[in-house]
Design brief:
The complex is a heterodimer of chains A (about 280) and B (about 350).
Chain A lengths: L10 H22 L1 H24 L5 H24 L1 H8 L1 H7 L4 H31 L8 H29 L1 H17 L11 H7 L3 H13 L3 H4 L4 H33 L8
Helix pairs in contact in A: 1-6, 2-3, 2-6, 3-6, 3-7, 4-7, 6-7, 7-8, 7-10, 7-12, 10-12
Chain B lengths: L6 E11 L10 E12 L4 E5 L6 H8 L7 E6 L2 E2 L4 H5 L2 E5 L11 H10 L5 H15 L14 H14 L4 E5 L7 H17 L4 E6 L2 H7 L2 E6 L2 E6 L1 H6 L5 E8 L15 E9 L2 E8 L5 H10 L3 E8 L3 H9 L3 H15 L1
Parallel strand pairs in B: 3-8, 3-9, 6-7, 7-8
Antiparallel strand pairs in B: 1-2, 1-4, 4-5, 9-10, 11-13, 11-14, 12-13
The chains are: A mainly alpha (about 280), B alpha/beta (about 350).
Amino acid sequence: MLPPVTKNATGWKLFWLTAFGRAYPRLVGQQREKSWLFFDVFFPMISVASYVFVYRAIQAPEDYIGFVVVGGAMTAFWMNVLWNMSSQLYWEKQTGNLALYIVSPAPMSAILMGMSLGGLAATTIRAVSVILLGSLIFQVSYAVVSFWMLLAIFLVCMVALYGMGMMTSSLFLLFNREAWHIANLAQEPIFLVSGFYFPVKSLNFWVAVGASIIPLTLGLDAMRQLVFSTGASLGFLNVRLELYILIGLAVVFLTAARYLLAYIEKLAVREGRLTEGRR
Amino acid sequence: MKDKFSVYTEKLGRVYKIRDAKKGDAKQLTALEDVNLVIKSGELFGLLGPNGAGKTTLIKILTTLLSPTSGLAVVAGHDVSKEPEQVRTCINMVSGGESSGYGLLTVRENLWMFAQFYGISTKEANDRIKKLLEIVGLSDRANMRSSDLSTGLRQKMNIVRGFLTDPEILFLDEPTLGLDVGASRDVRNFVRSWMDDDPTRTLLLTTHYMAEAEELCDRVAIINKGRVLACDTPEHLKKDFQKEAIFSIDVECDHLVDLERFTAIAGLNKVLAVPVNGTTSVEVFLEAEDVLAGVITELTEQNARIASLQKRQPTLEDVFVQLVGKRMEEVEKVENDDASASN
């Protein structure tokens, strides 16, 4: 009927085949449902517009408009990590995919890597669209100090952010709907403390330090310092220091994700939580 | 010794702790108890039992999704608790009614994605997908979004997913659940031909459809309340019943036949009655055929008019009734009623 499979990849090759396989639904999903792209760009633009009008009404420095546009674009990544990374394993459990991931020889870390890469690529298109549209509509002018530093900050910020998503996805798996509700509650307060629409420096120093646990806080602050002329004067910490802290966060989150995932998987298998939400 | 078998379990048990149990309620639930099974390479082995019997729990343990709380389970020569990664390279699993995959992807893309998780190259995966879709009659839906498939077609896609990776041991958990007669037959035919194609393949199938187990399986284990009650070929299991004469009698009556009065008939081992569309279907298990006269007399005394009477061969259903004391539907009804009451 069918010849046997000639060769099954193992090790790193299996890891990257799995990651690409899992990234695929996120990459093509956007192409299949074009209305998603419209709404994912349109709704953040509404928030951006409201802040822009407030800043213009109070005659805030013109760079604040740019701050809001960049913040609005980066919101897309936060939403993607919160709802398409952290809670994803919970939803995969509900649909039965999680059981199939576990039963396969693919490492779970590769599945999460695929989710991250696919989500990152799809969200980048949304974020770029928000920046382009926002810049065009509100006539934002940029003065990039260092392109390479900007790129480094963005990449490290994304690694740390998606590392955090990988780590929290394990916790969501463990706490089921309870974690989902907590994330729902935390969404708006995190918008506030992370300075998505204003310089985080405006907050109390210790509040800003606390908010820095979310990589977007420092990433956004550093990027604003690098692309706006008044950015440096409104920055929370030195850009280089923020880069080092982001590297530290990336290492911590990725390492924690690896160990937490292994621990949670073992615990879930022991208690029967991988496929049975009720118990 | 146990390394030589595809599946080997020894005193396997699984107990669930019930979280948030109310005062006075049981704090734990025994899903499996002392399960000893040996499944040889090349066997199509069936686990037959009602809903809640422990079939899915056993499959979950054997597929490394759940750890046992006692005993030993070895799959493809590897202990499921100690070497789950090695077990996973040899197995695949398909469950009935599963909604796995992503609705936005086409049938072909979903299957390709799962093939990636098994390290199969894109070219080989696509070749295999094409052939398998042809075999199950899904070629014309290959580029259709899986969310647009009917339940039956979706289950065929799931079945292809299980066979795509050519596993050494395949676990099918209620693969025909919710399918219509035609789709169920297609699935059964495909399963049988896959097994006939390579004598080293092993397949463990769970079902609560007696006819499915009887038609497909080389050997069957009957399981109820977490315990394996019997394990043998369907022919051997039924053989014990050959000494009994089984008669099916349809009677027309406006009330259920009083079963208590039948127990007084000498030579009557068991009697079952099920109301069906205004009539009652009575089954009697007799030590000898001449006991039937007493049964007919009793029915006549109860003013029940006999519409039809036939002698029939024993089935796995009869084996189940003898082992459990009830029909499978009755066991499931009691389980469902208990579950409703506790909710």
